[in-house]
DNA sequence: ACAAAAGTGTTAAGGATACACCCATGA
DNA sequence: TCATGGGTGTATCCTTAACACTTTTGT
């Protein structure tokens, strides 16, 4: 479960209270019940940590199945990427913590690998889909959105181009309202929103496009 | 397992000899052993159908886990995309057949959905990676490569642009040799090869590139 | 010579980046 | 009116698509 907090991309980790890997940090998750599919299961697992309505997007990442990935009985994990908008601050249990993805604590099992795969997927999809909606509040200024994209991608993006690219693709639209200017003056920023809050591919083919 | 055959993208299907879904067509696969990961397992399963050395690429697709996706005991499938170069014609068992992906027979369970997901993944990766190497022979003319890309993508691509895009990206290189001209004359085509036969992303970010 | 197929040159269009400039507000 | 941050206009660059043209062969 990823969220941009304090200008950094962070992941919700849970400190293990049992062996193996006692006290190491692990991803939330759990066993699959017999009457649910993996997507239902992950939502149920996460519901134990946060309010599920705050989850703006969930998608399958990959299967991790190395026979010795966890000690003891064979355990196969289907990893998911979950996203939470930057403006919510979920109540989380005492044994969990938000950790910056680029400065992870020592993780249990292969969970570091999973987190890095999640970050990579997120970066890629921010570029060719409207996935930003899942990290952004319902309404936001271009500056705020710039901060969110910069944190998720790991490098600075230019506000002017961000707005233009997203507007051209029709994923961003002005609400017509503005925020008050900051304490040191300046033009009041306009508020924007995403036109859709469902995942859509906006830049499907870089090359080898079908002919008209 | 996908291959371009006779100018069409085809998938190797196996006709079930048992209920449920008797006589319907299904994807090759089988159960995961306790001492292997899913990638190893799929190679083992496919080895029962063809010579594994002919598999030029294998990658994870997605997990299919709907509780009722198969009748009877709960069964969760990790689907894979496997590719075979167009110039090999593997010996296949009598109960299997190559079927055109855009004209599938009635499939068992949710296997049609899996095949369509595989085709989509293949199309996308042909555009932004060097994955063509997995469908093409070791050496080929641009015309042949054009046929392969056209079949896999489902629409005609122009030979001239195909060569230019792949050359610019450095994924294609001339061998220096040529093929004899066809029966009706014409300039003898040059032979090309892929510079690498490992998957590489050649067009990583459409937008929001990191600054220089 | 002519037809056919391969390959190259050139132009045009689309989309992204960079940067200068203009706008609106608080002090 | 000045500083500050927001937003727009415009130029440039890069990549690909389209198509005309040249090259090289067989008949």
TrEMBL record, chains A, B:
User: What region holds the Nudix hydrolase domain?
Assistant: 1-122
Q: Which residues form the signal peptide?
A: none
Top-level division of the source organism's lineage: Bacteria
Q: Output this protein's name.
A: NUDIX domain-containing protein
Per the UniProt record, the source organism is: Saccharopolyspora halophila
